[in-house]
Every structure is written in C-alpha cells, then in structure tokens.
Amino acid sequence: MEEILHVLKETGHEGRFIGSKDSKKEKSKEIAWYRDKKTMMTFISGVFIAIGFAFYFLSQHKEVSTLFFALSMVSGGYYIAKSGLYAARSLSLDMNFLMLVAAIGAAFLGEWSEGAAVVFLFSVGNTLQVYTMDKTRKSIAQLMELAPNEALLKTTDGEEIIVPVEELSIGDMIIIKPGEKIPIDGMVYKGYSFVNQAPITGESIPVEKKEGKEVFAGTINQQGLLEVEVTKLVEDTTLSKIMNMVEEAQAQKAPSQQFVDRFAKYYTPIVVILAIIIGTIPPLFWGVEFAPWIKKALILLVISCPCALVISTPVSIVSAIGNASREGILIKGGIHLEETGKIKAIAFDKTGTLTVGKPSVVDIDIVEGYDKKQLIKIAATLEKASEHPIGIAIVEKAVLEAIPLDLPLDEFQALIGKGVKGKVNGTNYCLGNVRLFVEQSIDLKNLQDKIDKYQKEGKTVVLLGQEKKVTGIFAVADEIRNISKEAVEALKQAGIEKTVMLTGDHPNTAKAVAEATGIQEYKAQLLPEDKLQAVRELVEKHGKVAMVGDGINDTPALATASVGIAMGVAGTDAALETADIALMGDDLNKVAYTIALSRRTLRIIRQNITFSIVVKIIFLILTFMGVANLWMAVFADTGASIIVILNGMRLLKNRKPTK
Known about the structure:
Elements: H1 2-10, H2 23-28, H3 37-58, H4 62-89, H5 95-108, H6 112-136, H7 138-146, E1 150-154, E2 160-164, E3 173-176, E4 186-191, E5 193-196, H8 198-201, E6 207-209, E7 214-215, E8 220-221, E9 226-230, H9 238-251, H10 255-286, H11 290-304, H12 307-326, E10 329-331, H13 334-340, E11 345-349, H14 350-354, E12 360-366, H15 372-383, H16 389-400, E13 409-415, E14 419-424, E15 427-432, H17 434-439, H18 448-456, E16 460-465, E17 470-477, H19 484-493, E18 498-502, H20 507-517, E19 521-523, H21 528-542, E20 545-549, H22 555-560, E21 563-567, H23 573-578, E22 581-583, H24 589-624, H25 630-649
Parallel strand pairs: 11-18, 11-20, 18-19, 20-21, 21-22
Antiparallel strand pairs: 1-2, 1-3, 3-9, 4-7, 4-9, 5-6, 5-8, 10-22, 12-17, 13-14, 14-15, 15-16, 16-17
Helix pairs in contact: 3-4, 3-6, 4-5, 4-6, 5-6, 5-11, 6-12, 6-25, 9-12, 10-11, 10-12, 11-24, 11-25, 12-24, 12-25, 13-24, 15-16, 18-20, 19-24, 24-25
Transmembrane segments: 39-58, 64-81, 266-286, 298-322, 609-628, 634-652
GO cellular component, one term: plasma membrane
Keywords: ATP-binding, Cadmium, Cell membrane, Membrane, Metal-binding, Nucleotide-binding, Translocase, Transmembrane, Transmembrane helix
C-alpha cells in the first residue's frame, strides 16, 4: 500500500486508503479545490507573471521582468514538471511532458514571457478541471452529510444517551424525534410517523412508517416519535452503499473515454517525434536558422496537447452520474450510461413494475364441496410460507377475514412458475395457475367461461384443487400504477422504438395491462427462462435493449439485456448489486429520465470530442502557415479545455426527457 502511495506522490498526486468505518470522517476532511496545493501554486504563478508584465511594460529594467517570469514558471510548473518527468521515466508521455518541454524550450530561446504564459495557463486549465470534478462530486458529499454523525441510543435500563453512529450495533434501540434525520438503517420497533425518503428514493411524497417497517439512514422523520431497532452497521447502510457505488461509477472509464485514452497513448509520442523533426531537420539539412524552427516545434507541442480531448468524456460522465444520483437513480458506470443512450427497445416485467406489485384477492368462486372460509383457509395454509405476491395476497385475505391458519401442512412443494402443492390436514391439494391443472390432466371445461371472464378483466386466476378436481377459484388483481401510462408515453417521446411487456400471467391479463399502459407488445405465460429467451430475441432484432424489473426475480433477463434496470431497490442489497442501473424508488418516469440523460450525455461527449479535434486541426494548419505563436497556442489549448468543461457541466442541470 505504501508503495502505491509513493508512486502516486511521484506523479504529483496524493492518495490515501480509507477504511470503511473511517470513510465518513476521512471524507469530511477533504480539502476544498481552492485550498488545494496545486491551486495555490497556480495563484502564486499568476501573481508572479502579473508582476513580470508590469515590469516589462512599465520599467526599464527588463531583467527584473525576466526574473518574475522565471519565478512564475517555477511555481506554476512544479507539479507539471513532477508529473512530466515521471511520465518520461515510465515511457508514457503525457500532456504534462509536452508542456514541460515547451516551457523549457521557450526559456532556452529567451522567450520568458511566453514560457511563463504556457505554464500559467496550463496550470489554470488543470485548476478548472479540479474545480469541475469537485463540483460534480458534491452530490456525493451532500449524500454523506445527509445522515447525522450521532444517534440517541436507548440503553437496556431505559436511559437515553447520544453516541456516535459508528458505535451502534445491530439490535440497538435508537430514538428518532419529529423533524430529525434518521442516522442509520433500522426497523420500526414502536411508534407511528411519516418519513420523507426523497434523499434515498428521489420521491418527495412521505411514506407511512409503523411497527415492522424499514427506515433508511439520511431520510427525515416528520411528525411522530419512532423507536427504531438498528439492522445494519453504519458502513452497510443503504446510503453508504449508494455513495460507494456512485463513486465507483464515476471512477470507471466509459468506452468513449477508453478510446480517447488509447488515442492519446499513441498520439503524444507521435507529436513529440514530429516536433523533433520540425525543430531539427530544416536547420540541419536546409541551412536555415534553428530558432524559428525550434519555436514552431514548441508551438506544435503546445497546440497538440490533448487536454480538451482527454477531459471531454470524464467531465460529462461524472456530471451525468452526479445528476442521476440526485434523482434517486444509481448508474453503475460510464459504460452503462453510454449503453442506455443507445437503447432502442425496452422490456418490462409486469408485476411490481407496471403494476404496484401487491395483488389482492377480489373474487372467490366455490366449485364444490366447501364454503368460502374453508377455501381461503386451505389456500392460505398452502401459501403461508410463500414470498410470491399472489401467495401473500391470499394469506392477507385470510388475515382480513380473521381466519386462523391452524391446519397442519406436510409435503409442501413449490412449483416454479406454476404454483404450490402440499398435504393440508391429511389431504393433498394443489394451488396454482391454469397450466398446473392442465398438466395434471384435470378437466376445466365446465370452468372455462368463468376463467375467461376473469382473465379478460385483467385478473389472475388461481385454482385450488385436489388430485382430480377443482374445488375453488380465486381471482387476484394487481393494480396498475397510476404513472405507468405516462411513463410509457415519456419513453416514446424519448425515442424508444419498441416497448414490450414480459409476464408469467395469462395472455388476457397481459393484454388488459398492455392496453391500459400503452405497451406495444406483450408476451404472456413466460417462465424465467422464457423471459431470458424473449430478451435475447429483442436484442437480436433491435440491438440495444433495456430490461426493467424488480432486480431479483428477473435477474437472468436483466443480465442478458444490454442494460438491466431494477426499480424500487432501496434496502434491497441484491438488486443494488445485480442491476446496471438501480432506481431507488418506484417512479417509472425515472426510466425515461435516465434514457434522456444518457442521450444528452452521448451528444455532449460527441460535441466535446469533435470540437477538441477541430480546434487542434485549425491551429496546426496555422502553425505550418507561420501564423500561430506560443500565445495563440496556449490560449487555444486552455480555451478549448474550458469550453469542453463548461459544456460537460451542463449535464448537472435537470431537464425534461426529450428525444
């Protein structure tokens, strides 16, 4: 570790290793850009160059101005020289090396003012880059400040004491008063309130919190007093995971940035060789003076410096990811941001994505031999250990009807994509979709009209039966999100050519939801492997495809798509880890926002790269024409960098989705 820090120091940079528990303290000590050593040296260089020009124009003592120009070069060029020399030793020539050679060459020719200008303006450009990255990463710093450093701990003897959040352990009880920020993730043990979860999910509507409900660090308790049991250590909270993931994403290189880096790797040595040829060949072979040609070589080095080109992509990526994080959108890296900008088609899971994901039993039909409460009791007994939304709905129906689930359950078996079966009170039962009963050769002819009726209404049919007969029908409906239709329309406005819904439900149910939401195509009765195949087919047909799901049940399809988008993943560690893009809340409109932001990012990256290259070409032509000088070269390089930075920073501003 010490060797890594030493190598960083040799390049003119500083680094440190941050332990997970100390990360919050360490990051709070980070130095602001304007107090950075490099920034201060740039300021000193500016003072010296200003004094130098004052003496040059207002005094007869030109040698004094030369002294201040030299001081300006030394102060502003210290870190440039350090990085440039290290680059030369490691045979990886970079822009710092080009500027170092240009400054030394200017001094060798006696052009002290121009040499000082080269160093100062290049330092100013570097300072602007530091400022830009500092500004675009402030969203992460703001996330860090969301959660309090201290918590009100309730001890086992009932005493309340304030302790640092780092000292909290899982199982501790903390008190959250009205208006306070929640310091750590936990479960409500006692109390009732509404909590503003906007810092985590991006949704401004307060969420009801009562016993058994999860709360997140950084969110704001509004009215009531809450007693919360700590469920995660400070370094494992959802807020910490979000912050770490956004930082990692900003550090990752996007494909366009990797291309620029590869380009610069070969470009810089070529420029150095070309400058050597221009500075030596004409004087040696054509008998002309050295000075004018060496000056042209220096101008070439300065103009050819790829500062603007190198910064063109990272400033855009970092700005866009910072923008998204403020909206409760976690983009896991530049590659996913760029891929999202190229999306042509989107596949949606139905349950929990286009619908609220919490179905309820709306109709029950008795077929034979049982009364309504008996049917509910048997079905709920089969599903009482289920985590499937339909199973939970049946159990909740039993709770609502105050039906006790006291029957013994044996030989339970989950049938993936079909239902469940088991022995309830000594009798074999199966509970599931129509496919399950068809596969068991149970005759459904007398029930088909009823089944069709429910399915045309967009309801999911669940059958309860014994080995050779159906005893009851449950109709379960999952409410469509009120923003689903609006979100699908926003995607079309953002340029999405195809929207498809993938579901395990019956075609009639799928059709009803698709028509209500404006989805162009639907595929029904799909098992997880069928969804995977459907996504592959979409990729073959449309190229770039996004899959939007819950991040857990749809993991194979999410992984197969060009971009996997999981929504509603606040507090869901698995979804945070597996998705390429994670929406902390349940707002489907964020999908369109993400796509629009990604496309803006791609446009701005292309603008930056094109502008950087065009400026270089123009000034290279002017150099060979004998028109450009060192001043023009420096202004062209620094000016292009500033324009590229400002253009990239436009991505920090929010915009409505556009095509």
